[in-house]
Amino acid sequence: MMTNGTGRAGTVRRGAGALAAVLATTLLAGCGPAGTDSGSGGTASTSPSANPKQALLAAVPDGSEGAFRFSGKDATSDLSGVVDPAAKGIDLTAAVKDPEHGFTTRMSFLVVQERIWMKVKFTGTDGLTGLPKLPNRWMELDRSRLTDPDATPTYEGVDVGNAGPIIQAATTVEEKADRTYAGVVDLTAAEAAKAVGEEEVAALGDAARQVPFTAVVGADGNLTSLTLDVPAAGTAKAWTYVVKYADYGSAPKLAAPGGDAAQPAPKLAYQMLNG
Known about the structure:
By secondary structure, this protein is of the alpha+beta class.
């Protein structure tokens, strides 16, 4: 169990997984237990901490910082959005370009409390036919109509990039100048593996036990970035896992869309998500 509030390992990855499901359907047609919010945010420090690992964990967002922006990158996807602890909400978006046909799918999920909406937009589609026609509005989903309800995001804590589980799995942490940290993470730890991707971690073999990372903490004591430099293994190329948090307390607050901005999801939306 981590010392700071976190999202369940893989929260962002499930959002990317839902996007992958939509892409697969489009082309055919044309984590561990939830964390707690019991930790406290960090405070700025100008001198090295006696325990750098605990100092870095204390910088992971815990829900007391207000709404903030995030972005994330793993082996297969890039995501960005907003986390709003007061609304128990997340807004996340991913954009993926189809290498064969050249069009881009931009998919967004909005979660507020127990409700969830989806929005899908295709760009660069000139000359293409067979793409699904969906409303250009937020489509509210009924989770009971999803084959796998866990394939779509839910609000499970503020650390949607799973920085906490990764830092917790660090075997060495050293504090550098300018609030920068560096060390080594053992990705075979269960929660860290779920956060980064269990298949990707398994492919690393013994190298998964010695993955270097760097992290930066802002002047306000809050984590601003965490980067894992994942080495090449077998036929897999080296890649980076990146989490960035920004605009603590100043990001837009989230709320359920109303009026003409939303509608119930049509049958086609469920067909896409259910594959």
